[in-house]
Write a structure and sequence with these properties.
The structure holds 2 protein chains of 2 kinds. Chain A is about 35% helix and about 15% strand. Chain A has a 9-stranded mixed beta sheet with strand order 3-2-4-7-1-8-11-10-9. In chain A, strands 5-6 form a two-stranded antiparallel sheet. In chain A, a hairpin with a 6-residue loop joins strand 10 and strand 11. In chain A, helix 1 crosses helix 2 and helix 6 packs across helix 10. Chain A starts with 11 loop residues before the first strand and ends in a 5-residue tail after the last strand. Classes of the chains: A alpha/beta, B mainly beta. Strand 5 of chain A pairs antiparallel with strand 4 of chain B.
Chain lengths: ~400, ~150
């Protein structure tokens, strides 16, 4: 009789990571980017395409699992989940993979995100068509309460939350800017980052143009072309593979109350990130770890202030205190919780957070360019203020 | 160039999607009435409207006409990239109506530099050339003033 699995904690590991270069114009198809990243991740793990039996992707990815499987000659798949909510679904692909591995639905699951998000489909551009006039989908209905009034971008929707958060805690644009300055400092020393060797100052942040006041250009992540893939298998099998495993100590999804589109401006409290808190509660419960056990974090930075709200939602800071935490250097390399050491999505690339998961794996392997000494526990979050997800990854010494 | 903060678009705005659950709201706007959905069983008001009461789960609903007065709960000024229908910045308010529900709309007639959370606002309706109407709000008293 197979044993009954009651937790996915420490059952699976990320054993391979792969990526393309990060650019503004890849010059290649999105499917090719996906295939390149999957191939690189399998090579990194020392596994072959025919050993893959699961492919997990974002519902938003333009590359179907069948197209990726066919391109790589993967003959048999038994597990093909898609995760919702754009950038909120990143860690969720790994959660699905871990659950599948823990329960026997699949043995080797590759998760991927590939997009020409600068050269083909720019997420920073406003919605152009809201409604065809036919029966509206629930998504179109959600958008109907903001689009007619000129809020048609992610920055626009998030700005309403940013203003209320600022007001509640007496924060300023500079408080948001310090998040970006820190990330760009990490990017400056990361050769894979688009903004390699291009740090910014707080003055640069303050001089950058208003996108949706109170958010400035340097509060927003960049737009990027590129792909990242991750290979997940059982911890048992991981021990026979090429790389030291990044053990999935916890993985979870979260959706909060009164979710409407992005930012959910109608919900009672706009000063917290409830989806992230729901994820965090599960991460701590599954793993038995606590915030003070975490050595570094990859906190989804679609917008600077969202990093602050997530640090609070995860319990690294009390409500309203994350800005002071960042200002005092705690997220810098010498701080108590280095954050987004690859430069984040504002500095390295915007691959819907998948490049950040790869960074956490490198930190646990000890192979990151901005390596945090003695990293054994890393937390990763996906996009906040939408249905989201998160991971706690550990080196094997902890599990 | 100075911005005319009394400007609000009367054409080319992105049209709202509608369903049988939400059409009453937009019909009300066409009649220059601001309508809030109400649960026909427990009486709780809700916005945005939907098919069921999230409190008592009743599928029965009607609506009430709002006073049109409320308080600015948050606001944003969209500058870039330009959004269809808006030639200049879009001043967007998150308004908490006196009835307790929130809605997103434009704040017309105020330099956004003078706006504050807590400002008292009042609705008006702006007919669109395409034959529909949007609710808009204007400040009637600054935050902290008794109204």
């Amino acid at each position: 009789m197979p044993r009954t699995v009651r937790s996915i904690s420490n059952e699976a590991a990320i054993v391979g990571i792969g990526a393309t270069e990060f650019s503004k114009n890849s010059g290649r198809s999105e499917l090719r980017l996906a295939v390149e990243a999957v191939k690189a991740a399998l090579d990194d793990a020392g596994l072959a395409p025919h050993e893959v039996d699961g492919l997990a992707a974002f519902a938003m990815d333009n590359n179907s699992q069948t197209a990726v499987a066919r391109s790589l000659g993967i003959p048999r798949l038994s597990f093909l989940p898609l995760t919702p909510a754009g950038g909120g679904g990143g860690c969720a692909t790994v959660a699905m993979a871990a659950a599948a591995v823990a329960t026997g639905l699949a043995e080797v699951v590759v998760c991927y995100r590939a997009m020409n998000e600068r050269s083909q489909q720019r997420f920073g551009q406003p919605k152009r068509a809201s409604w065809s006039g036919g029966p509206a989908t629930s998504h179109e209905l959600d958008q109907s309460w903001v689009l007619p009034f000129g809020l048609a971008t992610a920055a626009g929707w998030m700005a309403l939350v940013a203003r209320r958060y600022m007001s509640e805690y007496g924060l300023t644009s500079e408080d948001f800017g310090r998040v970006t300055v820190q990330s760009r400092a990490y990017a400056a020393t990361n050769p894979a980052a688009w903004f390699h060797q291009r740090p910014v100052t707080l003055e640069d942040h303050q001089a950058s143009r208003l996108v949706t006041d109170p958010l400035r250009l340097l509060d927003c992540c960049q737009e990027s072309d590129g792909a990242v893939a991750l290979v997940v298998t059982s911890l048992e099998r991981a021990r026979d593979l090429r790389q030291s495993p990044a053990v999935i100590a916890a993985a979870a999804q979260g959706c909060g109350p009164d979710q409407v589109g992005m930012a959910s401006a109608f919900r009672e409290d706009l000063t917290t990130a409830p989806e992230t808190a729901i994820v965090g509660d599960q991460l701590w419960a599954q793993s038995g770890l606590k915030p003070s056990d975490v050595d570094m974090g990859v906190i989804y930075d679609h917008f600077s202030f969202a990093v602050l709200m997530q640090l609070e939602a995860l319990g690294f800071c009390k409500p309203g205190e994350a800005a002071a935490f960042v200002a005092s250097g705690q997220t810098a390399a010498s701080g108590s919780l280095p954050v987004n050491t690859n430069g984040g999505q504002v500095g390295e690339a915007y691959i819907h957070g998948f490049n950040g998961i790869a960074e956490a794996v490198r930190q646990l392997r000890g192979s990151a360019v901005n390596q945090v000494a003695d990293t054994h526990v890393a937390v990763v979050t996906s996009g906040s203020h939408v249905p989201t997800s998160g991971l706690l990854l550990t080196s094997e010494e902890v599990s | 160039m100075t911005t005319d903060w009394s400007y609000a678009p009367t054409r080319d705005r992105l049209r709202p999607g509608q369903s049988p659950d939400t059409a009453f709201f937009w019909s009300g706007c066409d009649d220059h009435r601001l309508l809030i959905q109400r649960c026909a069983d427990c009486g709780v008001l809700r916005h945005p409207p939907g098919p069921a009461c999230p409190v008592c789960h009743s599928l029965e609903s009607d609506h009430v006409e709002a006073t049109g007065r409320g308080t600015l709960y948050s606001f944003a000024v969209h500058h870039y990239p330009p959004v269809q229908g808006f030639d200049g910045p879009a001043v967007v308010g998150l308004v908490e109506l006196d009835e307790g529900v929130r809605m997103v709309s434009n704040i017309v007639g105020s330099d956004p530099g003078s706006l504050h959370i807590g400002d008292r606002v009042k609705v008006f309706f702006l007919d669109q050339e395409e034959g529909w109407s949007v609710p808009q709000f204007t400040v009637i008293a600054p935050a902290g003033a008794t109204s």
